Amino acid sequence: MILDEFQRFKGLLENRPGYRDPAAELFQTLVRAKTPEGQPVRTLLLSATPYKLYTTDAEIEHEDHYEDFLATTRFLLNEDEQRVETLRSDLSAYGAALKRAVSGHTDQVPVAKSRVEHTLRQVMARTERVAASADRDAMIEEPRRALKLSVAEVQQYLAADALFRAVGDQDPMVFWKSASYLLHFMHGYKFNERLDETVELSPEKVARVLREHGSAFLDLEALKRWQALEPAHAKLDQIARDLIDVGFWKLLWIPPTVPYWSLEGPYEGQQGITKTLLFSAWNLVPDVVSGWLSYEAERRMVSGTLESYLDPAKQQAPLLRLTQIEPGKRARHRLLLLLLPCIALSDRAHPLSAPEGMDRRVWVKTKVTELLADPRLPNPSDGPIDERWEWALPLLLDPGLKDFLRLWRARESIPRPNRDVFVAYIDDLLALNPSELGRRPPGLSELAAEVALGAPAVLAARTLLTHLCQFQAEFPGKWADFPVPKNSYYPIINKIQIFRS
Q: Is 3 exposed, middle or buried (0-12, 13-18, 19+ CB in 10 A)?
């Protein structure tokens, strides 16, 4: 049993009388079980920063890290209270020895330290990554950034200091060093309680600060008009340079580590971008960073198309909606290409099946062209172009899709886009007679290749079958009454609740 970042799951380790938590009971049952050989289950708790042994941080004053530490040790010592009390006594003696050492009496420190280590080394270890590389640098590089203090940052401190003084709080320096716009993002601190009291009893004190330092606070009207907001903090400004200015906001997701083909468009040249981890002792920092970065990214995305930051849904028409112009007349059938899991495109045009060294886009298009060349498909050489080819593709390449469509149409519990007209679109597909189709539109194979490469339903079907086959291979007894149909897994998709159970 391995618990990574176990400090997040401290409740699982609790086993005191009267404590009832189903998750803790399940975990305790698992770790206290015996293997078939009668051995205890090996359990490893991992964390880089499990405890702060001493803290005066106002925001975590309610936490007792010493007792948390003893609770974890009690779990690791298999609830042996005698050993836990011995450790508690040794820790107390060690603390007393350190205090005496301040006066020069250091003779007891090594002995007390050794007794604590003797107990803890039986259940705890600290492993560094220093030896993981030849130059023993722990695989860590520390780039130095020259941060420049701005006028806006100084104004932030002056405003925060004035406000803290007005409500009777202490110097905001420790908060100001980590974040800007403190008034807007500090929640759950003692400062907030004092601010509420001051606003109620002496509102003029707060109003005076807002008048004298107005430029240091967020301007709602400027925000509504998508105006640029100062980061007002050197570290936040540097984060913006590293993440926003390089065009990271244009990417829908992290660039793939092993791309199927050469990255294009916004992804071109972004191969080296990866996640960024930020660490802070203050709860307000994630709010400030994510709030400011999100606003700035949105501003660059849509400020030219939306007049106001507020109510964006009212300012733009949704794109992916099935519509009905009038009874019996529908015109957005191509949207169904995103929703229909075509097995032929999923399996026979799988980009990972391309020969090594061959461009996968080219290979997928070749396979799609072969699928469209099936002599069973109509291919008139004259007459008007029939646009129905474009939205009927999945059904034409995979006739078994009709069974899925009937099941989908009948299931009320499955979410549907535009429920009021969705059934009519499905009926259009079910009523389609392939023999009545006219001439194929140009670019049909390119469209089919794009669907095979990126349509959500095709990718979901491809992934679903892969995992289901793995499950069936690993747990054959569990699937005896639910065999995987060859070349057909629409019933599997329809019965997705089986995966939940």
A: middle
Q: Are 403 and 490 in contact (CB under 8 A)?
A: yes
Q: Determine which helix (DSSP H) or strand (DSSP E) holds 45, and give its type and residue range.
A: strand 44-46
> 0.70 cut: is pTM over it?
no
Q: Bridge partners of 329?
A: 326
Helix (H, G, I), strand (E, B) or coil at 324: strand
- In this prediction, residue 52 carries a pLDDT of 63
Residue 480 has pLDDT above 60, yes or no: no
Q: Is 194 exposed, middle or buried (0-12, 13-18, 19+ CB in 10 A)?
A: middle
Residues 6 or more apart whose CB falls under 8 angstroms from that of 501 comprise: none
244: tokens are 């926003």
**Tally: H helices and E strands in the chain:** 21, 4
CA dihedral 29, 33, 36, 40 (to 10 degrees): 150
- What are the structure tokens assigned to 202, written together? 């002496």
pLDDT for 395-452, tens place per residue?
999 988 898 888 888 876 655 667 778 888 989 999 999 999 999 999 999 999 999 9
Label residues 82-119 b or e (16+ Cβ within 10 Å = b).
ebbebbeebbebbeebeeeeeeeeeeeeeebeebbeeb
Task: Please report where in the chains the tokens 């294009």 appear, as a residue.
Answer: 264
What's the pLDDT at 495?
Answer: 42
> What is d(CA 171, CA 184) in angstroms, rounded to the nearest whole number?
17
CA distance 232 to 299: 17
Closest CA to 151 of 233, 95, 228: 233
CB 11 within 8 A of CB 24: yes
H/E stretch holding 2 = strand 2-4
CA 333 to each of CA 178, 421, 424, 429: distance values in angstroms, whole numbers, following the listed order:
52, 11, 10, 9
CA dist 473 to 103, 219, 236, 480, 500, Å? 69, 60, 50, 11, 18
